[in-house]
């Protein structure tokens, strides 16, 4: 069995057995439940919640302040999705006013580290991507001027 941390060998793709397919899932299949988890984890707010909770437990209001721009409704919905996927742990203390804390489960820690790597890659490469965007705008403007002229 291949170590999942090692790069895959290039060559013909071996068809998976039915048992392997059911165990692993298939992101390319429309009805596969892994797509819903992928949507939750990779949504704009999902990534930011996972990264925010990686190193510290937060209350709802702390998360909302940390993740600038997220509405109360979207943060609540994102936390519910991630909790239902087994990635976020919600602990409610029976006090007045209510005190609720959010942290990552061990599974949430695993995926949080992976999306943090993605977020770090984006931040590190942002200047290159912004340059590519501006070049595309310049080329698009030049093409428009040539067509109009």
Record field, number of beta strands: 3
The biggest sheet amounts to: 3 strands, antiparallel
Instruction: Tell me the structural class.
Output: mainly alpha
Mean pLDDT: 85
Spatial strand sequence of the major β-sheet = 1-3-2
**H and E order:** HHHEHHEEH
**Fraction of residues in β-strands:** 5-15%
- Whole-Å distance between the termini? 62 Å
| Shape call | extended
- Low-pLDDT parts are 7-11
Number of helices: 6
Helix content: 55-70%
Radius of gyration: 21 Å
Verbal overview:
With 149 residues, this protein is mainly alpha-helical. The protein has 6 helices and 3 strands. It has helices spanning 18-24, 34-42, 44-53, 60-66, 72-84, 106-148, and strands spanning 58-59, 88-93, 99-104. A hairpin with a 5-residue loop joins strand 2 and strand 3 (99-104). Helix 2 packs across helix 3 and helix 3 (44-53) packs antiparallel against helix 6 (106-148). Residues 7-11 have low confidence and may be disordered.
């Amino acid at each position: 069995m291949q170590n999942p941390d090692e790069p895959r060998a290039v060559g013909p793709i071996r068809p998976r057995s039915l048992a392997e397919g059911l165990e692993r899932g298939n992101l390319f299949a429309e009805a596969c439940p892994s797509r819903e988890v992928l949507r939750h984890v990779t949504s704009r707010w999902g990534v930011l919640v996972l990264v925010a909770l990686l190193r510290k437990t937060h209350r709802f209001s702390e998360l909302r302040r940390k993740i600038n721009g997220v509405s109360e409704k979207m943060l609540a919905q994102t936390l519910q999705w991630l909790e239902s996927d087994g990635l976020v742990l919600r602990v409610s203390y029976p006090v007045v006013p209510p005190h609720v804390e959010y942290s990552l489960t061990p599974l949430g820690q695993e995926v949080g580290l992976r999306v943090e790597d993605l977020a770090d890659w984006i931040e590190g490469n942002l200047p290159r991507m912004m340059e590519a965007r501006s070049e595309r705008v310049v080329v698009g403007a030049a093409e428009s001027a040539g067509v109009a002229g």
